[in-house]
Design a protein that fits this description.
Blueprint: E1 8-13, H1 16-27, H2 41-47, E2 56-59, E3 68-73, E4 86-88, H3 96-112, E5 116-117, E6 131-134, E7 140-143
Parallel strand pairs: 1-3, 4-7
Antiparallel strand pairs: 2-3, 5-6, 6-7
């Protein structure tokens, strides 16, 4: 039997701290304490060579259950659809109008944070409702 390994989710982005803080709000994640010897992440960032400042950021699940999220600056912008995306599970166990209401409420909260609602996919008798969205740098995710 293969052992289960921990993993992190990595985002390529233009502004790692901004995107990380957006996902902290979405998922209830937190920014971990700065490295030993530094009072803040800003202090740590200032200690880096200029080309590395602001190049990455991290957020973590405060319960320790969810994966670590790593955000790294890349020079190129997003050009095509993601091959992998996150499904933010806000409607688990809900069906019909109750599920749609929960998804739409979360959608409104995330739009206020800068996300974009792509469309509302209503239940069709086979699939339940979900809402495809874009984060603040255009990365796709779904409210499910």
């Amino acid at each position: 039997m293969t052992a289960i390994r921990q993993f992190q989710v990595t985002f390529d982005c233009a502004d790692p701290a901004r995107v990380a803080r957006f996902w902290c709000e979405v998922l209830g994640y937190v920014v971990p304490p700065p490295p030993e010897g530094f009072g803040t992440w800003e202090e740590y960032d200032r200690s880096l060579p200029p080309e590395r400042r602001g190049a990455s950021f991290v957020c973590v699940d405060p319960t320790g259950v969810g994966p670590r999220m790593y955000f790294q600056r890349v020079p190129e912008g997003k050009a095509v659809k993601n091959r992998v995306h996150l499904d933010v599970r806000v409607g688990t166990g809900l069906v019909g109008d109750e599920r749609l209401a929960a998804l739409e409420a979360e959608c409104a909260r995330l739009v206020a944070l800068g996300a974009v609602c792509v469309q509302v996919l209503r239940a069709d008798g086979f699939d339940e409702s979900c809402i495809p969205m874009l984060d603040i740098e255009g990365n796709e995710f779904c409210l499910d």
